[in-house]
Amino acid sequence: MVRIVDWSVSKRQNRAVTEFLERSAFPEEAEKAAFEVLSAIRARGDEAVAEYVAKFEGAKLQPKQFRVSAAEMKNVDAAVSPSLKRAVKDAYTRVMRFSKESLRKPWTMKTPRGGSAGEFFSPMDRVGVYVPGGTAPLASTSVMTVTLARAAGVKEIVACTPAGKTGEINPVLLYALKLAGVTEVYRVGGIQAIGMMAYGTKSCAKVQKIVGPGNAYVTAAKRQVYGYVGIDQVAGPSEIAVLADGTVDARWVAADLLSQAEHGSGWEKSLLVTQSKAFAEKVKEELLAQTETLSRKEIIKRVIDRDGILFAVTPNLTEGLELVNRFAPEHFEIMCKDALKLMKGVRSAGAVFAGAWTPESAGDFVAGPSHVLPTGGAANMFNGLTPDDFRRRHSFVAFTKEDLAETKKTIEAFAEVEGLDAHGRAASIRFE
Protein backbone atom coordinates (compact mmCIF):
# COMPACT_ATOMS: atom_id res chain seq x y z
CA MET A 1 0.00 0.00 0.00
CA VAL A 2 0.99 3.65 -0.41
CA ARG A 3 1.02 5.22 3.05
CA ILE A 4 0.72 8.90 3.93
CA VAL A 5 2.42 9.67 7.25
CA ASP A 6 3.33 12.74 9.30
CA TRP A 7 6.97 13.55 10.00
CA SER A 8 8.84 16.38 11.70
CA VAL A 9 12.32 17.00 13.02
CA SER A 10 11.25 17.72 16.59
CA LYS A 11 8.61 15.04 17.23
CA ARG A 12 9.20 11.36 17.88
CA GLN A 13 10.04 9.77 14.54
CA ASN A 14 7.47 7.81 12.60
CA ARG A 15 8.35 4.10 12.44
CA ALA A 16 7.27 3.83 8.80
CA VAL A 17 9.67 6.61 7.83
CA THR A 18 12.53 5.09 9.82
CA GLU A 19 12.05 1.71 8.13
CA PHE A 20 11.79 3.37 4.73
CA LEU A 21 15.10 5.20 5.20
CA GLU A 22 16.95 2.00 6.09
CA ARG A 23 18.12 -0.11 3.16
CA SER A 24 21.02 -2.44 2.58
CA ALA A 25 23.19 -2.50 -0.53
CA PHE A 26 24.60 -5.94 0.30
CA PRO A 27 22.04 -8.74 0.73
CA GLU A 28 23.69 -11.81 2.24
CA GLU A 29 22.71 -14.09 -0.64
CA ALA A 30 24.30 -11.71 -3.15
CA GLU A 31 27.52 -11.56 -1.13
CA LYS A 32 27.76 -15.36 -1.00
CA ALA A 33 27.04 -15.78 -4.71
CA ALA A 34 29.58 -13.12 -5.64
CA PHE A 35 32.30 -14.77 -3.54
CA GLU A 36 31.67 -18.17 -5.14
CA VAL A 37 31.63 -16.93 -8.73
CA LEU A 38 34.59 -14.57 -8.33
CA SER A 39 36.70 -17.29 -6.70
CA ALA A 40 35.97 -19.64 -9.59
CA ILE A 41 36.90 -17.01 -12.19
CA ARG A 42 40.18 -16.24 -10.43
CA ALA A 43 41.01 -19.94 -10.46
CA ARG A 44 39.67 -21.05 -13.85
CA GLY A 45 39.28 -17.90 -15.97
CA ASP A 46 37.22 -18.20 -19.16
CA GLU A 47 36.08 -21.71 -18.32
CA ALA A 48 34.32 -20.44 -15.20
CA VAL A 49 32.93 -17.40 -17.04
CA ALA A 50 31.32 -19.68 -19.64
CA GLU A 51 29.95 -21.91 -16.91
CA TYR A 52 28.21 -19.06 -15.12
CA VAL A 53 26.98 -17.41 -18.32
CA ALA A 54 25.19 -20.70 -19.03
CA LYS A 55 23.91 -21.01 -15.47
CA PHE A 56 22.67 -17.47 -14.90
CA GLU A 57 22.06 -16.13 -18.41
CA GLY A 58 21.05 -19.28 -20.25
CA ALA A 59 23.48 -18.92 -23.15
CA LYS A 60 25.97 -21.66 -23.97
CA LEU A 61 28.92 -19.67 -25.25
CA GLN A 62 32.49 -20.60 -25.92
CA PRO A 63 35.09 -18.03 -24.77
CA LYS A 64 35.75 -17.04 -28.39
CA GLN A 65 32.07 -16.05 -28.60
CA PHE A 66 32.14 -13.69 -25.61
CA ARG A 67 33.36 -10.70 -27.57
CA VAL A 68 31.09 -9.01 -30.09
CA SER A 69 32.83 -9.24 -33.44
CA ALA A 70 33.97 -6.32 -35.56
CA ALA A 71 31.45 -7.37 -38.22
CA GLU A 72 28.58 -7.23 -35.69
CA MET A 73 29.68 -3.79 -34.57
CA LYS A 74 29.92 -2.60 -38.15
CA ASN A 75 26.48 -3.91 -39.14
CA VAL A 76 24.53 -2.73 -36.10
CA ASP A 77 23.71 0.62 -37.72
CA ALA A 78 21.37 -1.07 -40.18
CA ALA A 79 19.36 -2.64 -37.34
CA VAL A 80 18.47 0.69 -35.70
CA SER A 81 15.78 3.03 -36.98
CA PRO A 82 16.69 6.60 -37.98
CA SER A 83 14.55 8.05 -35.17
CA LEU A 84 16.35 6.01 -32.51
CA LYS A 85 19.72 6.93 -33.99
CA ARG A 86 18.78 10.60 -33.70
CA ALA A 87 17.78 10.10 -30.06
CA VAL A 88 21.06 8.34 -29.22
CA LYS A 89 23.09 11.01 -31.04
CA ASP A 90 21.21 13.78 -29.22
CA ALA A 91 21.96 12.21 -25.85
CA TYR A 92 25.58 11.54 -26.76
CA THR A 93 26.14 15.13 -27.92
CA ARG A 94 24.70 16.62 -24.74
CA VAL A 95 26.54 14.23 -22.42
CA MET A 96 29.84 14.79 -24.22
CA ARG A 97 29.47 18.56 -23.98
CA PHE A 98 28.68 18.39 -20.26
CA SER A 99 31.55 15.95 -19.71
CA LYS A 100 34.14 18.15 -21.40
CA GLU A 101 32.98 21.19 -19.46
CA SER A 102 33.15 19.32 -16.15
CA LEU A 103 36.72 18.01 -16.47
CA ARG A 104 39.01 19.41 -13.80
CA LYS A 105 41.75 21.59 -15.21
CA PRO A 106 45.45 21.33 -14.30
CA TRP A 107 46.69 24.18 -12.13
CA THR A 108 49.94 25.59 -10.78
CA MET A 109 50.85 27.87 -7.88
CA LYS A 110 54.13 29.54 -7.02
CA THR A 111 56.03 28.41 -3.94
CA PRO A 112 57.49 31.12 -1.63
CA ARG A 113 61.03 30.89 -3.06
CA GLY A 114 60.42 30.71 -6.78
CA GLY A 115 59.42 27.08 -7.32
CA SER A 116 56.01 25.70 -8.23
CA ALA A 117 53.42 23.12 -7.15
CA GLY A 118 50.09 21.97 -8.51
CA GLU A 119 48.07 19.17 -10.06
CA PHE A 120 47.73 17.56 -13.46
CA PHE A 121 45.71 14.63 -14.75
CA SER A 122 46.20 11.63 -17.02
CA PRO A 123 43.54 9.28 -18.43
CA MET A 124 43.42 5.65 -17.37
CA ASP A 125 44.62 3.22 -20.00
CA ARG A 126 41.87 0.60 -19.87
CA VAL A 127 38.51 0.74 -18.08
CA GLY A 128 35.42 -1.45 -17.93
CA VAL A 129 31.78 -0.39 -17.93
CA TYR A 130 28.87 -2.57 -16.93
CA VAL A 131 25.61 -2.00 -18.81
CA PRO A 132 22.50 -3.73 -17.41
CA GLY A 133 20.46 -5.62 -19.99
CA GLY A 134 18.32 -8.05 -18.04
CA THR A 135 14.84 -6.69 -17.24
CA ALA A 136 15.50 -3.73 -19.55
CA PRO A 137 18.32 -3.08 -22.06
CA LEU A 138 19.69 0.21 -20.75
CA ALA A 139 20.98 1.77 -23.94
CA SER A 140 21.15 5.08 -22.08
CA THR A 141 23.74 3.65 -19.69
CA SER A 142 25.98 3.04 -22.70
CA VAL A 143 26.00 6.79 -23.29
CA MET A 144 26.18 7.71 -19.61
CA THR A 145 29.37 5.69 -19.02
CA VAL A 146 31.39 5.26 -22.21
CA THR A 147 31.01 8.90 -23.26
CA LEU A 148 32.58 10.06 -19.98
CA ALA A 149 35.53 7.70 -20.41
CA ARG A 150 36.01 8.94 -23.95
CA ALA A 151 35.87 12.59 -22.81
CA ALA A 152 38.57 11.76 -20.25
CA GLY A 153 40.82 10.38 -22.99
CA VAL A 154 40.75 6.65 -22.12
CA LYS A 155 42.11 4.61 -25.05
CA GLU A 156 40.62 1.18 -24.23
CA ILE A 157 36.99 1.11 -23.09
CA VAL A 158 35.51 -2.33 -22.40
CA ALA A 159 31.77 -2.89 -22.04
CA CYS A 160 30.03 -5.97 -20.63
CA THR A 161 26.28 -6.55 -20.88
CA PRO A 162 24.08 -9.62 -20.45
CA ALA A 163 22.65 -11.01 -23.69
CA GLY A 164 20.26 -13.65 -22.32
CA LYS A 165 19.55 -17.05 -23.82
CA THR A 166 19.92 -15.90 -27.42
CA GLY A 167 23.33 -14.36 -26.92
CA GLU A 168 22.13 -11.33 -28.88
CA ILE A 169 22.59 -7.79 -27.58
CA ASN A 170 19.84 -5.24 -28.10
CA PRO A 171 20.87 -3.36 -31.29
CA VAL A 172 20.07 0.10 -29.87
CA LEU A 173 22.24 -0.62 -26.83
CA LEU A 174 25.03 -1.83 -29.09
CA TYR A 175 24.67 1.17 -31.39
CA ALA A 176 24.88 3.51 -28.39
CA LEU A 177 28.06 1.78 -27.21
CA LYS A 178 29.59 2.13 -30.64
CA LEU A 179 28.67 5.81 -31.00
CA ALA A 180 29.95 6.63 -27.52
CA GLY A 181 33.36 5.18 -28.35
CA VAL A 182 33.59 1.69 -26.84
CA THR A 183 36.55 -0.39 -28.09
CA GLU A 184 35.44 -3.87 -26.91
CA VAL A 185 32.00 -5.33 -26.12
CA TYR A 186 31.40 -8.66 -24.35
CA ARG A 187 28.07 -10.50 -24.18
CA VAL A 188 28.66 -11.39 -20.52
CA GLY A 189 26.65 -10.05 -17.59
CA GLY A 190 26.27 -10.38 -13.85
CA ILE A 191 28.97 -11.33 -11.38
CA GLN A 192 30.84 -13.17 -14.13
CA ALA A 193 31.29 -9.94 -16.11
CA ILE A 194 32.73 -8.15 -13.07
CA GLY A 195 35.14 -11.02 -12.41
CA MET A 196 36.27 -11.21 -16.03
CA MET A 197 37.06 -7.50 -16.17
CA ALA A 198 38.61 -7.34 -12.70
CA TYR A 199 40.93 -10.34 -12.89
CA GLY A 200 41.41 -10.65 -16.64
CA THR A 201 41.10 -13.86 -18.66
CA LYS A 202 42.50 -15.07 -21.96
CA SER A 203 39.53 -13.57 -23.79
CA CYS A 204 39.47 -10.22 -21.95
CA ALA A 205 42.47 -8.39 -20.53
CA LYS A 206 42.22 -6.91 -17.03
CA VAL A 207 40.90 -3.37 -16.66
CA GLN A 208 41.98 -0.70 -14.18
CA LYS A 209 38.54 0.41 -13.08
CA ILE A 210 34.93 -0.82 -13.33
CA VAL A 211 31.97 1.54 -13.39
CA GLY A 212 28.25 1.30 -14.06
CA PRO A 213 25.02 0.31 -12.31
CA GLY A 214 23.74 -3.19 -11.70
CA ASN A 215 21.59 -5.37 -9.48
CA ALA A 216 22.48 -6.51 -5.96
CA TYR A 217 24.70 -9.29 -7.31
CA VAL A 218 26.68 -6.96 -9.55
CA THR A 219 27.00 -4.51 -6.66
CA ALA A 220 28.29 -7.22 -4.32
CA ALA A 221 30.79 -8.34 -6.97
CA LYS A 222 32.08 -4.80 -7.51
CA ARG A 223 32.61 -4.37 -3.80
CA GLN A 224 34.54 -7.62 -3.56
CA VAL A 225 36.91 -6.84 -6.46
CA TYR A 226 37.74 -3.39 -5.08
CA GLY A 227 41.50 -3.33 -4.65
CA TYR A 228 42.12 -5.52 -7.69
CA VAL A 229 40.53 -2.68 -9.65
CA GLY A 230 39.06 0.68 -8.83
CA ILE A 231 35.28 1.07 -8.77
CA ASP A 232 33.03 4.08 -9.06
CA GLN A 233 30.65 3.35 -6.17
CA VAL A 234 28.35 0.71 -4.72
CA ALA A 235 24.83 1.04 -6.04
CA GLY A 236 21.60 -0.85 -5.50
CA PRO A 237 17.95 -0.48 -6.56
CA SER A 238 16.83 2.84 -8.03
CA GLU A 239 15.22 5.50 -5.88
CA ILE A 240 13.72 8.96 -6.06
CA ALA A 241 12.57 11.64 -3.63
CA VAL A 242 10.27 14.48 -4.65
CA LEU A 243 9.86 17.61 -2.54
CA ALA A 244 6.62 19.30 -3.65
CA ASP A 245 4.85 22.42 -2.43
CA GLY A 246 1.62 21.80 -4.37
CA THR A 247 2.36 24.26 -7.17
CA VAL A 248 3.26 21.49 -9.64
CA ASP A 249 0.51 19.34 -11.18
CA ALA A 250 -0.14 16.24 -9.05
CA ARG A 251 -0.22 14.14 -12.25
CA TRP A 252 3.36 15.16 -13.03
CA VAL A 253 4.58 14.37 -9.54
CA ALA A 254 2.89 10.95 -9.62
CA ALA A 255 4.45 10.16 -12.99
CA ASP A 256 7.89 11.11 -11.68
CA LEU A 257 7.53 8.89 -8.61
CA LEU A 258 6.57 5.96 -10.84
CA SER A 259 9.54 6.50 -13.15
CA GLN A 260 11.89 4.83 -10.69
CA ALA A 261 9.47 2.21 -9.37
CA GLU A 262 9.35 0.45 -12.75
CA HIS A 263 13.04 -0.55 -12.90
CA GLY A 264 12.47 -4.19 -12.08
CA SER A 265 14.04 -5.45 -8.85
CA GLY A 266 10.96 -4.76 -6.74
CA TRP A 267 13.14 -3.05 -4.12
CA GLU A 268 13.03 0.44 -5.66
CA LYS A 269 11.96 3.35 -3.45
CA SER A 270 9.94 6.50 -4.18
CA LEU A 271 9.44 9.18 -1.52
CA LEU A 272 7.12 12.17 -1.74
CA VAL A 273 7.64 14.94 0.81
CA THR A 274 5.12 17.78 1.01
CA GLN A 275 3.67 20.17 3.55
CA SER A 276 0.12 19.53 2.28
CA LYS A 277 -1.79 16.35 3.15
CA ALA A 278 -4.47 17.25 0.62
CA PHE A 279 -1.84 17.41 -2.12
CA ALA A 280 -0.40 14.08 -0.97
CA GLU A 281 -3.88 12.54 -1.31
CA LYS A 282 -4.16 13.89 -4.88
CA VAL A 283 -0.77 12.47 -5.84
CA LYS A 284 -1.65 9.09 -4.30
CA GLU A 285 -4.87 8.92 -6.31
CA GLU A 286 -2.99 9.81 -9.49
CA LEU A 287 -0.17 7.36 -8.80
CA LEU A 288 -2.52 4.41 -8.33
CA ALA A 289 -4.52 5.33 -11.43
CA GLN A 290 -1.43 5.77 -13.62
CA THR A 291 0.03 2.49 -12.42
CA GLU A 292 -2.84 0.61 -14.07
CA THR A 293 -1.99 2.16 -17.45
CA LEU A 294 1.70 1.17 -17.47
CA SER A 295 3.25 -1.84 -19.21
CA ARG A 296 5.34 -2.67 -16.13
CA LYS A 297 2.50 -2.31 -13.63
CA GLU A 298 3.13 -5.71 -12.04
CA ILE A 299 6.70 -4.68 -11.26
CA ILE A 300 5.45 -1.41 -9.76
CA LYS A 301 2.87 -3.25 -7.68
CA ARG A 302 5.67 -5.34 -6.15
CA VAL A 303 7.31 -2.09 -5.05
CA ILE A 304 4.02 -0.86 -3.58
CA ASP A 305 3.41 -4.17 -1.78
CA ARG A 306 6.88 -3.94 -0.20
CA ASP A 307 6.13 -0.42 1.09
CA GLY A 308 8.57 1.04 -1.42
CA ILE A 309 6.43 4.14 -2.00
CA LEU A 310 5.88 6.50 0.91
CA PHE A 311 4.37 9.97 1.24
CA ALA A 312 5.54 12.11 4.18
CA VAL A 313 3.74 15.27 5.28
CA THR A 314 6.03 17.74 7.06
CA PRO A 315 5.24 21.03 8.86
CA ASN A 316 7.09 23.05 6.21
CA LEU A 317 9.47 22.68 3.26
CA THR A 318 12.56 23.29 5.39
CA GLU A 319 11.79 20.22 7.48
CA GLY A 320 10.83 18.39 4.30
CA LEU A 321 14.26 19.10 2.87
CA GLU A 322 15.84 17.78 6.07
CA LEU A 323 13.98 14.49 5.62
CA VAL A 324 15.23 14.20 2.04
CA ASN A 325 18.81 14.85 3.19
CA ARG A 326 18.44 12.02 5.70
CA PHE A 327 17.13 9.74 2.96
CA ALA A 328 20.10 10.70 0.71
CA PRO A 329 18.33 9.67 -2.50
CA GLU A 330 19.84 8.72 -5.83
CA HIS A 331 17.51 11.21 -7.58
CA PHE A 332 15.98 14.28 -5.93
CA GLU A 333 13.34 16.40 -7.62
CA ILE A 334 12.46 19.80 -6.17
CA MET A 335 8.99 20.41 -7.57
CA CYS A 336 8.49 23.77 -5.88
CA LYS A 337 8.08 27.38 -6.90
CA ASP A 338 11.46 28.38 -5.42
CA ALA A 339 13.32 25.26 -6.53
CA LEU A 340 16.73 26.87 -7.13
CA LYS A 341 16.61 28.65 -3.79
CA LEU A 342 15.70 25.44 -1.98
CA MET A 343 18.46 23.60 -3.81
CA LYS A 344 21.03 25.50 -1.73
CA GLY A 345 19.99 23.39 1.26
CA VAL A 346 20.73 20.04 -0.39
CA ARG A 347 23.45 18.05 1.40
CA SER A 348 22.89 14.47 0.30
CA ALA A 349 21.58 13.56 -3.15
CA GLY A 350 23.11 11.88 -6.18
CA ALA A 351 21.51 14.26 -8.67
CA VAL A 352 19.10 17.16 -8.25
CA PHE A 353 16.33 18.11 -10.68
CA ALA A 354 15.00 21.59 -10.03
CA GLY A 355 11.64 22.92 -11.18
CA ALA A 356 8.47 21.68 -12.78
CA TRP A 357 10.00 21.15 -16.21
CA THR A 358 12.84 18.90 -15.07
CA PRO A 359 11.60 15.32 -14.67
CA GLU A 360 14.16 12.80 -13.49
CA SER A 361 13.88 11.01 -16.84
CA ALA A 362 15.56 13.99 -18.51
CA GLY A 363 18.62 13.20 -16.41
CA ASP A 364 18.35 9.48 -17.10
CA PHE A 365 18.45 9.93 -20.85
CA VAL A 366 19.64 13.24 -22.21
CA ALA A 367 20.33 16.24 -19.96
CA GLY A 368 24.12 15.90 -19.64
CA PRO A 369 25.29 14.58 -16.25
CA SER A 370 25.73 10.81 -15.97
CA HIS A 371 22.83 8.84 -14.56
CA VAL A 372 25.23 6.48 -12.76
CA LEU A 373 24.53 7.63 -9.21
CA PRO A 374 24.90 6.41 -5.60
CA THR A 375 21.91 4.63 -4.06
CA GLY A 376 20.97 3.04 -0.76
CA GLY A 377 21.94 6.16 1.19
CA ALA A 378 25.42 6.18 -0.35
CA ALA A 379 24.83 9.75 -1.57
CA ASN A 380 25.97 10.68 1.94
CA MET A 381 29.50 9.70 0.96
CA PHE A 382 29.69 9.08 -2.82
CA ASN A 383 29.18 11.28 -5.86
CA GLY A 384 27.71 10.43 -9.23
CA LEU A 385 29.99 9.27 -12.02
CA THR A 386 32.07 11.99 -13.72
CA PRO A 387 34.76 12.04 -16.44
CA ASP A 388 37.36 12.62 -13.71
CA ASP A 389 36.59 9.14 -12.39
CA PHE A 390 38.40 7.88 -15.50
CA ARG A 391 41.52 9.95 -14.87
CA ARG A 392 44.41 9.81 -12.44
CA ARG A 393 45.26 12.92 -10.44
CA HIS A 394 48.93 13.74 -10.03
CA SER A 395 50.24 16.35 -7.63
CA PHE A 396 53.66 17.83 -8.33
CA VAL A 397 56.22 19.96 -6.52
CA ALA A 398 59.21 21.67 -8.18
CA PHE A 399 61.25 23.32 -5.42
CA THR A 400 64.16 25.68 -5.98
CA LYS A 401 67.27 25.45 -3.79
CA GLU A 402 65.89 28.36 -1.81
CA ASP A 403 62.55 26.55 -1.23
CA LEU A 404 64.32 23.49 0.14
CA ALA A 405 66.61 25.64 2.31
CA GLU A 406 63.58 27.38 3.77
CA THR A 407 61.84 24.07 4.63
CA LYS A 408 64.90 21.98 5.60
CA LYS A 409 64.52 22.46 9.34
CA THR A 410 60.84 21.47 9.20
CA ILE A 411 61.74 18.32 7.24
CA GLU A 412 64.46 17.45 9.73
CA ALA A 413 62.13 18.04 12.69
CA PHE A 414 59.47 15.66 11.39
CA ALA A 415 62.16 13.09 10.47
CA GLU A 416 63.47 13.18 14.04
CA VAL A 417 60.05 12.82 15.65
CA GLU A 418 59.11 9.91 13.38
CA GLY A 419 62.48 8.19 13.61
CA LEU A 420 63.07 8.39 9.88
CA ASP A 421 66.73 9.39 9.60
CA ALA A 422 66.93 8.87 5.84
CA HIS A 423 64.09 11.30 5.29
CA GLY A 424 65.96 14.05 7.11
CA ARG A 425 69.28 13.25 5.43
CA ALA A 426 67.63 13.43 1.96
CA ALA A 427 67.15 17.14 2.59
CA SER A 428 70.25 17.99 4.64
CA ILE A 429 72.73 16.19 2.36
CA ARG A 430 72.01 18.66 -0.39
CA PHE A 431 73.58 21.44 1.68
CA GLU A 432 76.73 19.63 2.86
List the SSEs and their pairings:
Elements: E1 3-6, H1 15-21, H2 28-44, H3 46-57, H4 70-75, H5 82-102, E2 107-110, E3 116-123, E4 126-130, H6 139-152, E5 156-160, H7 171-180, E6 184-186, H8 190-199, E7 209-211, H9 216-225, E8 230-231, E9 239-244, H10 250-261, E10 269-274, H11 277-291, H12 297-305, E11 309-313, H13 317-327, E12 331-335, H14 339-343, E13 351-354, H15 360-365, E14 391-398, H16 401-417, H17 421-428
Parallel strand pairs: 1-11, 4-5, 4-7, 5-6, 7-8, 9-10, 9-12, 10-11, 12-13
Antiparallel strand pairs: 2-3, 3-14
What does this molecule look like?
The protein folds into three domains: 28-231, Nitrogenase molybdenum iron protein domain (Rossmann fold, 3-Layer(aba) Sandwich); 236-380, 3-Layer(aba) Sandwich (Rossmann fold), CATH 3.40.50.1980; 399-431, no CATH class. 44% of the residues lie in helices and 16% in strands. It has helices at 15-21, 28-44, 46-57, 70-75, 82-102, 139-152, 171-180, 190-199, 216-225, 250-261, 277-291, 297-305, 317-327, 339-343, 360-365, 401-417, 421-428; strands spanning 3-6, 107-110, 116-123, 126-130, 156-160, 184-186, 209-211, 230-231, 239-244, 269-274, 309-313, 331-335, 351-354, 391-398. Strands 1-11-10-9-12-13 form a six-stranded parallel beta sheet, sandwiched between helices. It has a five-stranded parallel beta sheet with strand order 6-5-4-7-8, with helices on both faces. α2 (28-44) packs across α9 (216-225), α3 (46-57) runs antiparallel to α8 and α5 (82-102) runs parallel beside α7 (171-180).
